[in-house]
Specification:
Layout (H helix, E strand, L loop, with lengths): L2 H5 L4 E4 L2 H4 L4 H10 L4 E4 L6 H18 L2 E5 L2 H6 L4 E4 L6 H8 L4 E6 L2 H9 L4 E4 L17 H7 L6 E4 L7 H7 L3 E4 L1 H4 L4 H17 L1
Parallel strand pairs: 1-2, 1-8, 2-3, 3-4, 4-5, 5-6, 6-7, 7-8
Helix pairs in contact: 3-4, 3-11, 9-11
């Protein structure tokens, strides 16, 4: 496992969405999330072309490096490498983790989205550093076939010793559920980037998650 992955605070994994955070620039939305306690920022943009995405990645790389947060690029291995990101996150339809590991080397974090125990096993065997598990709740930010429920987190944790990051429809009202299920952290988009005050939303998400873990 990447040494950086071992040291990472996964509690709040902030995923960018410029439409939701507008009119704030993407780096300001990310900065507010970090100030509120996010230890990880993922650049997610399904529409930006290569140069535009690269420019955004450079701005977020500078911000996260200064703030001491981990920077992950979604899907685009080339952009992650070019911008010197800390890691890349892969979906089931992206390049397999073992192929990406050969490209990026050992220091870079490689995360993989999983929707079943079998997918989790495959990702772990392929060298993933963490797993994004879900969607645990219904979500409007991604087209999904089915909701996994938080039970999948508990099931995977019984067998696989990797950081498990719950994703999908997580809000202040349900984040405690994923903490109690055994998740190491929660990836949040709408409830964070769509908040009127991103920093306050992040603080509330972190405190609620940590309180549930402590019980």
């Amino acid at each position: 496992m990447s040494k950086l992955a071992l040291k990472t605070d996964w509690t709040l994994y902030a995923i960018t969405d410029e439409l939701l955070s507008s009119p704030l620039p993407i780096e300001e939305a990310a900065r507010q999330a970090i100030l509120g306690g996010a230890g990880v920022v993922q650049l997610r943009d399904k529409h930006a072309l290569g140069r535009e995405l690269y420019d955004k990645a450079l701005r977020l790389r500078e911000l996260t490096a200064q703030a001491g947060a981990v920077f992950i690029v979604n899907d685009r291995v080339d952009v992650a490498m070019a911008a010197d990101a800390d890691g890349v996150h892969l979906g089931q339809e992206d390049l397999p983790a073992e192929a990406v590991r050969r490209l990026v080397g050992e220091p870079m974090i490689v995360g993989v989205s999983v929707e079943s125990l079998d997918q989790a096993r495959d990702a772990a065997a392929s060298g993933a550093d963490y797993l994004g598990v879900g969607p645990v709740f219904p979500t409007t930010t991604k087209e999904i076939a089915a909701v996994t429920g938080v039970e999948l987190i508990t099931l995977i944790k019984q067998e696989i010793d990797l950081p498990l990051i719950a994703i999908g429809g997580i809000t202040l009202d349900n984040i405690a559920e994923v903490a109690r299920a055994g998740a190491h952290g929660a990836a949040v988009i709408s409830a964070l980037m769509g908040a009127a005050n991103i920093r306050q939303a992040a603080e509330a998400l972190v405190s609620t998650f940590e309180a549930a873990k402590a019980k």
